[in-house]
From TrEMBL:
Gene3D superfamilies from the UniProt entry: Chloramphenicol acetyltransferase-like domain
Annotated GO MF terms: acyltransferase activity, transferring groups other than amino-acyl groups
InterPro entries xrefs: CAT-like_dom_sf (IPR023213), Sec_Metabolite_Acyltrans (IPR051283)
Keywords annotated in UniProt: Transferase
Protein name as annotated: Acetyltransferase
Length: 475
């Protein structure tokens, strides 16, 4: 992946001398014109923390190292038009970003491989890139189209460092930032962050930190220590400094769509998932539910109530499996959750929402502290990168979380975010991401990536689509 190159050199400087270094061009010039057109980078600044870091090296942990083969996280937010000049907005965002990096200096550092092959985050204040882009021919309505696919040819240009693999943090910034101003004045703020350095929780915590500083509030400190599993001697070795590649075909054709599920629809799915099987079901289902009821692992009294999100995931699992026409009726399918555990691999064709939700619930309930530590020990015995992807076409991988503070806490001073969108990072057949609904009422948005023929079949699935609606703020 070619790096975006400034037409002006950047002069290095110590943080005490200059926290911000800029390469600026007139509005008519262009640093990087994307192939799709529409979005043009007009300035690029290299931003450093406004105070020198005293933080020691942070060794990548058991949960960090496997992510070195993943793309950088790409997430961002659309905002209403601010009521201040764009030059003032950019200056405000850059100065507050410099202060936020001082609060979380690891994000301004670089990865370093030590002589013993341990990989560390060196908090050396090397800095990050901040890009200012404009889209004079595009408005918010071009990006947020109700009942339509995400216009990925446009959204990919809202983010720098497209498809950069996390191992490249040895030579590239660990985070990069882009603010894009649309024709109607709406603003998109995108963050790209090394996936071996941050997870979803710390990503959105930093987003909140930056927003809080920008609007004049004091942020909550972030604990960046990586000692949950204690000191590990496991290392990943990459000979010759050549890092890993992603484990999936990043160029496979995909359709992407954000499905909105209202709080009422989710409550209905949850009620179905928790409903005890009654009379009249007969035959095969009666036998299946009978076995589940007497299995301690699956018994509702022992596992607790099936949650709203588990119920929603089960509905998606069933619907996507139906839409995958190439799967045989007895194919084994798998639902993976971002917390690192796998839902049971089972043939779904004969089962319904209650059964699928019960399988997810039991799998998640079994994945407690002991299971996590056993998985960590197994990885240390045989280290390797995390195998993202869907090699046999039967897997769903759910990432992100509807509990992350994407809308709450991310007001930069001129209004609450309007919508969340992501870039092309880590997307493949069956990759999904959960976002909170904009209204904050318990609704959920699920970003779904599927091959064109599978997406078309899913959209024709009345059993699934009855639960999908358009969020009120897009009507």
């Amino acid at each position: 992946m070619a790096q975006m190159i400034s037409t002006m050199p950047m002069v290095d400087a110590a943080p005490a001398v200059s926290a911000i270094m800029a390469s600026k061009l007139p509005q008519s010039a262009c640093l990087d014109a994307p192939a799709s057109g529409g979005i043009t980078v007009v300035s690029r600044q290299h931003v450093r923390p406004d105070a020198a870091s005293a933080m020691a090296d942070l060794t990548l942990s058991v949960s960090d190292l496997p992510m070195l083969s993943c793309h950088y996280i790409q997430k961002g937010l659309f905002f209403p038009a601010p009521d201040l000049p764009m030059s003032s907005l950019v200056s405000l965002l850059v100065s507050s970003l410099s202060r936020a990096l001082a609060a979380v200096p690891a994000l301004a550092g670089r990865l370093v491989t030590l002589p013993d092959d341990r990989i560390v985050i060196r908090c050396n204040d090397a800095g990050v890139d901040f890009l200012h882009a404009v889209a004079p021919g595009l408005s918010l309505d071009d990006f947020l189209v109700p009942d339509a696919d995400v216009p990925t040819k446009l959204t990919k240009d809202l983010f720098p460092m497209d498809r950069t693999v996390s191992y490249e943090g040895h030579r590239r910034p660990l985070t990069s930032f882009q603010v894009t101003v649309l024709r109607d004045g709406a603003v998109f703020i995108g963050i790209v962050a090394n996936h071996a350095v941050v997870d979803g929780t710390s990503f959105w915590h930093f987003f909140n930190t930056w927003a809080a500083i920008c609007r004049g509030d004091s942020p909550t400190p972030l604990d960046f220590r990586r000692n949950f599993f204690g000191d590990s001697t496991a290392v990943l070795r990459f000979h010759g400094g050549v890092g890993p590649a992603v484990t999936f075909d990043a160029d496979a054709p995909l359709r992407e769509r954000v499905f909105h599920f209202s709080a009422d629809a989710i409550r209905e799915m949850k009620a179905i998932a928790n409903r005890r099987p009654g009379g009249g079901g007969g035959g095969h289902d009666a036998e299946v539910y009978g076995k589940m009821a007497h299995d301690p692992k699956n018994n509702p009294e022992s596992r607790g109530e099936i949650s709203s999100f588990q119920s929603l995931c089960a509905q998606i699992w069933l619907a996507v499996t139906r839409a995958r026409k190439r799967l045989s009726p007895d194919a084994t399918t798998t639902f993976r959750m971002a917390r690192g555990d796998d839902g049971d691999g089972v043939g779904l064709a004969r089962h319904d929402l209650r059964w699928a939700a019960g399988k997810l619930n039991a799998s998640l309930a079994a994945y407690g502290d002991g299971a996590i530590r056993r998985a960590a020990a197994a990885w240390q015995a045989k280290p390797g990168c995390f195998p993202l992807g869907n090699p046999d076409g039967s897997v769903i991988t759910m990432g992100s979380s509807n509990r992350f503070p994407m809308y709450e806490g991310n007001d930069f001073g001129w209004g609450r975010p309007l919508a969340v969108r992501s870039g092309r990072a880590n997307k493949f057949d069956g990759k999904m991401s959960a976002f909170p609904g904009h209204a904050g009422d318990g609704s959920v948005d699920i970003e779904v990536c599927l091959p064109p023929e599978t997406m078309a079949a899913l959209l024709r699935d009345a059993e699934f689509m009855q639960y999908v609606s358009c969020p009120s703020h897009l009507l």
